[in-house]
Amino acid sequence: MSGSQAAPPAKSPAGVEVVAEADVVVIGGGPGGFAAALRARREGCSVVMVEKFDMPGGVHTSGLQGAANPGVGGIHTELMERFDREGCIYAADEKSLPGWAGNALSHYDYYLPPGSPFKRVSFNPDGAGNVMVKMLDEAGVHAIYGASFVDVEMEADGGERRITHAIIETVGGREAIRGRVFVEGSGTAEVVARAGAPFVRGGGRQPETLSDGQSRPIPGGLLWIMSGIDFAETAAYQKREDDPALSKLINKARAAGDIPPELYRPRLADKGVYGDHYIGHPTVDMSPIRGPGTFILWQNVPYEWALHMDDDAEHASRAKRDLRRLIDAEARFLVKYVPGFQHAFIAHVGRYVGVRDGRHPIGEYVFSIDDAREERRFADAVTRPMTKTFFWDAYKRYTFEIPYRCFLPKEVSNLLLTGASLSFTFETIFMVMRNFPWCTQTGEIAGLAAARSVRQRITPKQLQWTEPLF
Ligand SMILES: Cc1cc2nc3c(=O)[nH]c(=O)nc-3n(C[C@H](O)[C@H](O)[C@H](O)COP(=O)(O)OP(=O)(O)OC[C@H]3O[C@@H](n4cnc5c(N)ncnc54)[C@H](O)[C@@H]3O)c2cc1C
Q: Which UniProt keywords apply (predicted)?
């Protein structure tokens, strides 16, 4: 690494100092990148992983999204068991959190009949991030934190091109990492974009109820944590005053001028998926986390802002600035008006605004909603048939497989896709195929494919995938 006393490092063809070299270079340490790095290392490869923030986990640690789900085995299940053993898991049920099931403020459990049994399990994002750092260290992954991937160097490879170096920016300046196989773990297909490979920009066809002809990405979100909430008092107020969504308090605050008009944005009820799930200030949307009295709150980019936060710096900056204003206004409203929040305070704001609808790479196969509807099977399936509920499609359940070709971007021979950057159409990725367990699975699949390619001295494109991993 830069700063070492070793012989002067080599330069890349473009003249950038080469600070590391590995069989597998993973860009981004979210669920996809983390699992890819761990699996490839456990398969015996040398691995460098580059992560912008100070821990792996992506949206689920740096972004504060702490919903836990045991998954279907492999690294994801191991991860959840390790979080549990290391004291990072918190579980709430109808006994520990009465008034939660069916509560309009509950991000996940609002639809349950009031009082019904439930179990919500979450993890402490920072504690979980520490565990993930340890797991990579234990495995011997060379993780470089606080490093931004910014570019690639490439060379011709038959009819395609291959990446030779990833270019990163660190406190040491611009540096290069040489690798044989590269893994896209940025969550927004940044490697695909820098490599000049094809992708579809976020913001495709939208539900007709909100369609005005303008292409809008599905909103991203910034999560934050509030501590010191006495939820029993809030639930008692909601019931006593018949004010489930706190509308009476919101109206009172508006009348008193305590909610700036430009920040007021009512819940878009009955307007398709966005109405129920992607709401604006000041309708609180929260999930229990870490222990009693501490909740994650959701601050989603208003749909009408139509921000492309993955490829437009002005949009990304607006999201950060304006969501902070919304959080500030919402916290002030809650503390001043809502019973149970008198002693609450902002404990944490996510390190970044999570992008739900960024670039969608075009791979050797683009998985579409029709593949799910028609329950297609593939000779190169990466998993056994999976059954998933498509709430985009009237909550229908389909059983289908995903082909390995969805992990292979067109035009680049040695790059594997993972997580939210797979070759899927946006309906499939947004509605079903982007949850934490699946993204970790995709990373593990990519890590194994990378290791097999290295062992066989071929590119991931040349690798024959014949058996499902999960
Ligand atoms: C607001 C929001 C809420 C969500 N809620 C849920 C939920 O409740 N349950 C659920 O299961 N899923 C949820 N998801 C979906 C899930 O979190 C994502 O689909 C998943 O995290 C994607 O994993 P990933 O590894 O592809 O990317 P990410 O989690 O985005 O991780 C990408 C990583 O790459 C790093 N990175 C990015 N660019 C660079 C760069 N240039 N250089 C270096 N590092 C870089 C980032 O810092 C990050 O650590 C949510 C997503 C969002 C955005």
A: 4Fe-4S, Iron, Iron-sulfur, Metal-binding, Oxidoreductase
